[in-house]
Amino acid sequence: MTTPVVELSGVSKRYGDVLALDDADLRIERGELLAVVGPSGSGKSTLLHIMGTLDRPTTGTLHIDGYDVGALSDRELSVLRARAIGFVFQQFHLARGVPAIDIVADGLLYTGRSRAHRRQAAEQALHRVGLGHRMKHLPHQLSGGEQQRVAIARAVLGDPPLLMADEPTGALDSHSGETVMALLRDLNDAGTTIVVITHDRDIAASLPRQVRLKDGKIISGVRA
Amino acid sequence: MSAPPLVPARMPVADVIRVGGHGLRSRPLRVFLSALGIAIGIAAMVGVMGISASSTHELDRRLSSFGTNLLTVTAEPESHLPTTAVSMIGALPAVDTVSAVGRTGARVYRNDHIPTERTGGIVVYAARTDLPTVVGARTVAGSWLTDAYTAYPAVVLGWTAARSLAVYETGPGQLVWLGGRWFTVVGILAPNDLLTDLDYGAFVGWPVAERELGFDGYPTTVYTRPQQSAVTGVQPLLGAAANPENPGEATVSRPSEVLKAQLETRRTLNALLLGLGAVALLVGGIGVANTMVISVLERRSEIGLRRSLGATRGQIRTQFLAEALLLSLLGGAGGVALGIGITAAFAATQGWAAVVPPWAMAGGMAATLLIGGLAGFYPAVRAARLPPTEALANP
């Protein structure tokens, strides 16, 4: 039996008086492609932050790639993010004035790889997302869909076991959105576990598994 | 559990500099302006130290050419020394050379049409022929009075005197109206930094002064050079030797000490300017701190992204500290260059050799690093403390 990529048990997150996430249990196996779906304020972002180890649960335990997150220091969590988790954000977060290849190469900046290695890997990753012809382009010279593909290339650079995509198509037109979703499916076919956070029911419905959230509770999709 | 331990990878220095420089490259104008603050402070300090060092260097050069063993004995105004002064001083132990000038009442003019009140501050002296060897004077044109000239109406002009008389050449055609008759200018002296009085002098031979200018033959200033080791021993004896009857009426001085004292006064001014430079540097440092605080506020999403890419708090702190250090180093390097430029320009106007002490440059850069470190520390700590979720929430 393989260890699950993500395992939450009884995870709650409280911000002051607000219970943003209420006793969540979730297990994500290697190679899954799933949607976390729910209206705004349902706790999607909180779940993303906790699964991405950007925030810690108030109660409950979380395992990522076999590590007990609650037992790790902030330093160790940083290393875990560098090695095991890739992030894709709605707003792309690409540095202005930096060529695509260097943006992507920064995906491995904190892993101790040499710059030459990082750039070489970035070149491959850009080919992988279909932007082999856009290496030297600056973000503002790229379309929204291309920018998001650059961000995806950065996120999957070190082949992390887990890719977290937060509303990856939220800032894109429908055509670009489809391209990005198709890319995520390709990456999943190649073995990457992908969690897509979305409020878009159509996108959620197109993925093999949906985890539905409402008012901080997981209401369906607990098991695949 | 078989999972490998989670140890952060060390970032190579090249990456630290590259990442630190990233924030600077994207905002060139702001970087230029805040680096300028540092640069002005450093330039002021390096400039002051450079100018001070250049003037000290110049002083040393002058002193080494004129020597520090020259002593002068001057009679009170409107009085004179006895005729025995020169021989009495020459008889003192350890005194090698001695010479004298005697102030005459004569006036000198460019020609005989100049109104008599326009003397130009020039004083006509009767001078002994051995004066240049004692005071270290040299001529820029012509030559000093030789024995052959002393009985004839020949004059040697001090540097400033020649300028104010508009005499630039020497020779038979160069005449000045001195004491009611024409004198031929046979020499012009180079400026004498040690004895500036000589620059305003017109020197004629002792015999011709007595014969033509009504000179009484008494010396008014005696110049002497004791052996270097004996200077302080000889100095107190000079007053009595020059004027045994009224030793108090002669003023004994050591011109090199006077020059040094002038330099000391300039040092006080330098300290003031250095203080101003330090204030400018402080203000520059605050500018850098301000820039860094704003930079951290503006780049919350970048910080969030980097944390999500796996940067530890320490790595974020290092990034912003490196950015602050690079920013102030940029200003420091510019300031040192500017300070060297100021020194060179000032030295050029004074005709000095420009000297910027290496320790001033090194000190400037060290001060810059210190300022950058202090200015960058708090913003860097703030950046590192920012929780990743909060950083990502504000694009």
Describe this structure in words.
Chain A is an alpha/beta fold. Chain A has one domain: P-loop containing nucleotide triphosphate hydrolases (Rossmann fold). Chain A has seven helices and ten strands. Chain A has a six-stranded mixed β-sheet with strand order 6-7-8-3-9-10, sandwiched between helices. In chain A, strands 2-1-4-5 form a four-stranded antiparallel β-sheet, with helices on one face. The longest helix of chain A has 16 residues. The longest helix of chain B is centred in the C-terminal third of the chain and has 44 residues. By secondary structure, chain B is α+β, with helices and mostly antiparallel strands. Chain B folds into two domains: 185 residues, no CATH class; 186 residues, no CATH class. In chain B, strands 1, 2, 3, 4, 5, 6, 7, 8, 9, 10 and 11 form an eleven-stranded mixed β-sheet that branches. Chain B starts with 12 loop residues before the first helix and ends with a helix. At the A-B interface, helix 2 of A face helix 1, helix 11, helix 12 and helix 14 of B. Chain A: Keywords: ATP-binding, Nucleotide-binding, Transport. Chain A: Pfam families: ABC_tran. Chain A: This is ABC transporter ATP-binding protein. Chain A: GO terms for molecular function: ATP binding.
What attributes characterize this protein structure?
heterodimer; A: 224 residues; alpha/beta; Rossmann fold; six-stranded mixed beta sheet; four-stranded antiparallel beta sheet; 7 helices; globular; B: 395 residues; alpha+beta; eleven-stranded mixed beta sheet; 11 strands; elongated
Which SSEs are present, and which pair or pack?
The complex is a heterodimer of chains A (224) and B (395).
Chain A: E1 6-15, E2 18-28, E3 33-37, H1 44-51, E4 59-64, E5 67-68, H2 74-84, E6 85-88, H3 100-105, H4 115-128, H5 144-155, E7 162-166, H6 174-189, E8 193-198, H7 201-205, E9 209-214, E10 217-220
Parallel strand pairs in A: 3-8, 3-9, 6-7, 7-8
Antiparallel strand pairs in A: 1-2, 1-4, 4-5, 9-10
Helix pairs in contact in A: 4-5, 5-6
Chain B: H1 13-25, H2 28-66, E1 71-75, H3 85-90, E2 95-103, E3 108-109, E4 123-127, H4 131-135, E5 139-142, E6 154-157, H5 159-164, E7 175-178, E8 181-189, H6 196-199, E9 201-205, H7 206-212, E10 221-226, H8 231-234, H9 238-242, E11 250-253, H10 255-298, H11 300-308, H12 313-350, H13 358-385, H14 388-393
Parallel strand pairs in B: 4-9, 6-8
Antiparallel strand pairs in B: 1-10, 1-11, 2-4, 2-10, 3-7, 5-8, 6-9, 7-8
Helix pairs in contact in B: 1-12, 2-10, 2-12, 2-13, 10-12, 10-13, 12-13
